[in-house]
Amino acid sequence: MSLLMLLNETSPWVVALGLVAVAEIYSIGLMLLFRTRMGAERLALNNEVAGFKFAVVGVFYAVLLAFVVVAVWVD
Question: Is residue 7 within 8 Å of residue 15, measured between CB atoms?
């Protein structure tokens, strides 16, 4: 059975769930591989820098979300 026939015959929810499951398994596998190869001591050095990066991304997301809410509310 070809991939196109499989995608046409299955439910979009099943296809989406399968794609999400494959992406999750891939990302978790890469994370575990990277942690075993690099070690916890070396990765712990970047915790403070990563915290600031997540804070900046969170602020940008909040501002963008506020702009979207205001733009939708005005119309």
Answer: yes
Q: Taking residues 40-48, report their average pLDDT.
A: 79
Burial 1-30 (b: 16+ CB within 10 A, else e): eeeeeeeeeeeeeeeeeeeeeeeeeeeeee
Q: How far apart are CA 74 and CA 12, in angstroms?
A: 34
Domain ranges of the chain: 1-44, 47-75
Identify the DSSP state of 1.
Answer: -
CA distance 38 to 42: 6
The predicted-structure confidence for 7-42, as pLDDT tens digits, reads as follows 788 888 998 999 999 999 999 999 999 889 988 788
Stated pTM of the model: 0.54
